[in-house]
Amino acid sequence: MGESTATAGAVTWLTGARADVRRALAAWDRGDLAPVPAGVAWDVVRMPQRVGWRTVHRLRADGALLGPVLHTVTHVEALVPADTARSWYAPQTTTLARGDFVSAPDPAVVAPLTARTRSWIVAPTAPLFLTDPDELRAAYLAAHEVMKGVGT
């Protein structure tokens, strides 16, 4: 990855999450995923893949600011402010909080690139901006309603 602005941003992001920076950078240099703790600097809302993509599209169409969003084979995962998981509820979603880890690709791995079936839809940056949970919930519920009609 080399010393660059992207690396400095990644180190800032990892440090804020209290991740093992050396371990993460080494994993990314190998093309692997790095375990990054949730629940310190942010929580994660995990949505089913198709509804999650529709949620991201809806947020973008509404002009909402998106924080980091991961794409996996089965899910879309949005980073939201810490402690959001405690009060989050939306059908077919789960959350990750303190004690959980996100398997994160290098922030340079943005869709359509992938690392071990994961990529960023929106990569983390420094300073870190997080998706507003109320906007995320509203967009998700709207997308969920639409997808119910087409069989999620």
Question: Can you give a write-up of this model?
Answer:
- This protein has four helices and seven strands.
- 34% of the residues lie in helices and 21% in strands.
- Helix 3 crosses helix 4.
- The chain has 152 residues and is α+β, with helices and mostly antiparallel strands.
- The protein starts with a helix and ends with a helix.
- The model has no long low-confidence stretch (mean pLDDT 91).
- The strands form two sheets. It has a five-stranded antiparallel beta sheet with strand order 5-2-4-3-7.
Mean pLDDT: 91
Strand order of the largest sheet: 5-2-4-3-7
The helix fraction, in percent, is 25-40%
Structural class computed from helices and strand pairing: alpha+beta
Largest β sheet strand count, sense and barrel closure: 5 strands, antiparallel
Order of helices and strands: HHEEHEEEEEH
Shape: globular
In DSSP terms (H or I, runs of 4 or more residues), the helix count works out at 4
How many extended strands?
Answer: 7
Cα distance spanning the termini: 38 Å
Radius of gyration: 15 Å
Q: Provide the low-confidence segments as ranges.
A: none
Could you tell me the strand content as a percent range? 15-25%
